[in-house]
Design goal:
The protein has 170 residues and is α/β, with parallel strands linked by helices. The chain has helices at 8-15, 22-31, 42-54, 61-73, 82-99, 107-115, 120-123, 127-139, 150-159, and strands at residues 4-6, 38-41, 77-78, 142-144, 165-166.
């Protein structure tokens, strides 16, 4: 693999010294080779910005500290590309085949999907997780996550057998 893609929860554990998983994540980071690239997704940054904006105290000093932490510890952020979209599309299509609502994929139902797609909730997945997984696939990165994502992981393993994920907070 070519590095590590850290998801939102992992970043939060790494940053927050009051969290019980802080020391485990820091120990995992410290054990990496010094040249091991660490990445954060633009989607993860969006989730963090949303959390700060939705929190009435989001503009406080902790937010500024967290933003400084991201800038200094994780300078490499990943944008979504057309290659990300390709991996996302393949994995989501297989998820939809397996977990779509009972009505199935009739010709009429496919047309309806164009204007009213099956949601992540109906498929039992988190859309942001799927995009982040697609970025890890695209760039051959180990996804570091505390999220369960069972359906996504099982499906990804069939399409991309080299996909790897780790949980540094466990």
């Amino acid at each position: 693999m070519d590095g590590y893609l850290l998801d939102t929860q992992t970043l939060c554990y790494w940053f927050d010294a009051t969290d019980e998983r802080f020391s485990r994540v820091n120990a995992a980071v410290d054990q990496l080779p010094s040249d091991a690239p660490l990445y954060v997704s633009a989607i993860t940054l969006g989730e963090i910005c949303y959390g700060h904006a939705a929190n009435p105290n989001g503009a406080g000093p902790k937010r500024a500290d967290f933003e400084q932490f991201i800038r200094t510890r994780l300078p490499q952020s990943l944008e979504v590309s057309h290659h990300t979209a390709e991996a996302y599309g393949k994995v989501r299509a297989l998820l939809a085949q397996r977990f779509a609502p009972k009505e199935g994929w009739t010709k009429k139902r496919r047309a309806e999907q164009m204007s009213d797609p099956v949601t992540g909730r109906e498929l039992g997945i988190d859309e942001n997780d799927l995009w982040i997984v697609a970025q890890a696939i695209e760039r051959r990165l180990v996804l570091v996550t505390a999220d369960k994502m069972k359906r996504i992981r099982d499906t990804v393993g069939e399409l991309y057998p080299d996909f790897q994920s780790e949980n540094w907070g466990a």
